Amino acid sequence: MSAAVEVQQLVREFKGGIRAVDGLDLEVRDGEIYGFLGPNGAGKTTVVRILTTLLRPTAGEARVAGHDVVRDGDAVRRAIGVALQEAAIDPLMTGRELLRMQGALHGLRNAEARDRATQLLERVGLTQAGDRRVGGYSGGMRRRLDLALALVHRPHVLFLDEPTTGLDPTSRAALWREVRALHEEGTTVFLTTQYLEEAEQLADRVGIIARGNLVAEGTPESLKERVGEPTVHIEMSDPDDGARACEALAGLGAVERPTERAPTRIGVRTAAGRAAIAPIVRALDEAGVAVEFVEVESPTLDDVFVAVTGSTLEGAGAA
Amino acid sequence: MREGRVVVALGRRALSVQFRRAQLLMPTFVLPLVLLAVIASGTSAGQGLRGFPDVESFLAFVVPGTIVQGTLLAGLTAGIAMASDIEFGFFDRLLAAPVQRTSLVLGRLAGTLSLSVLQTAFFIVVAALFGARFPGGVAGVLGTIALATVNAVAMGGVSTAMAIRTGSLSLLQSVFPFMFVFLFTAPAFFPQELLTPVLQDVSVFNPLTYVVEGVRGMLGGDSSLGSPLAGFAAAFGMAAASVALSTFALSRRLRRL
Q1: pTM of the entire structure?
Q2: CB nearest B257 (choices: A56, A88, A104)
Q3: What domains does chain A contain, in order, with CATH numbers?
């Protein structure tokens, strides 16, 4: 599979020697959704601005859709769609006017731009609002329009910089649906986010950036596996069954014994995860241990984040 | 052809937004007319001074000042709008598009040019309704509109260059009073011969002098009031320099990214 985005030893230094990006290497495969996860100030937006030719790197190389972002910026701009963090949309223009203007910027003729605007307004559910000024749109509507603007020329690679920040759950879900649909159509999506759930829900692979560098990368599942095995928690009916239960479960994984604070709770850490539920319940049944309920707790991307950066996503953001 | 469509699209946006934003509409259409009313009614006695040109009406004599004032303000609003685009991020949307960078400047100035056509025609119609007569006729009016638009583009180029260089909306807004200094050091509302000696000397070096006199000559149908050729030469000279300045400012800004 070829690379839609290739970054090698990318550095961006701002005034005062502040390194927002510090020797970053990453690769985004053609057709995948790449979740770029990190707290505020980690360097996500700086990377996006470099990849979209809005900022020059201090050192290193970056190629998007096969084109160098410094030497061949125009070819990069032809291949990409961009929805930046702050949906910079002129509030005095209507959604349709903005889409038509964006069409002209991407070389569409008048009639083409008009038709494309109508199609996209329908696609993002803004047909009714299309002829209203954007100043009257809600945050969710603006984000959807921003996405539509990024799609006018059917880009090969789509950059979405924190597309759902500040949105209500319904608007967020609508945007996620649209991103999934674009992915199914073959568009490569480079998505920056500070929401773990968003990365988990949408991304084929996730890169975690902290202090300007990539500290972990992989599929959400592989990243979580790296942190630790899932734990199957069993709630027993009778606290006196603890010893018997531990004995019965000994061969199925690392057993976490009941404690004084939770005398009816036993844990079994096992790579099998959910698949271990049936043998565990069978073993407890054979040992005559009555079970109230069973649940599986898997490591989250937050655990991954803590493991690779030493702080939580929120904590790192505040730092 | 492709870049032409870009310039037209950006020009259309610049013009439509101008009419939807009261803070841009007031200075470009209303303020010059208010000033015209004050000057025409308050200083019309000046027409009786020795050395004042032999004109049909004082109103017709000062209208060129209003027209040039309009072009200054139209140009300034181009810079304000550009600074606003930069400050609020809309300019990034334009920079992320595969268009020639000069088209971004020319698109903005195309809006200024269109605005100036409407504005100049509006001032002439209002002045005519209030009794101003223009012996230069239709040719004089069309020539005036042409000269005013070139001057508006020149002023737009200067303010756009400032906007691109600084990206500061508040700085552009603070330039507003200086536009009046530029205007009043030219014989906008009074003949050059009746200005104080110091102001007369300054006005010789102020290119607006030639623009305002060129307009006066065309509307008055009398080249002794001002040379249209000198007016066009001054306006084209300023326009060429300021457009070059703003495209240079943009390329510098992009290099500094």
Answers
A1: 0.82
A2: A56
A3: 3-219 (3.40.50.300), 229-297 (3.30.70.100)
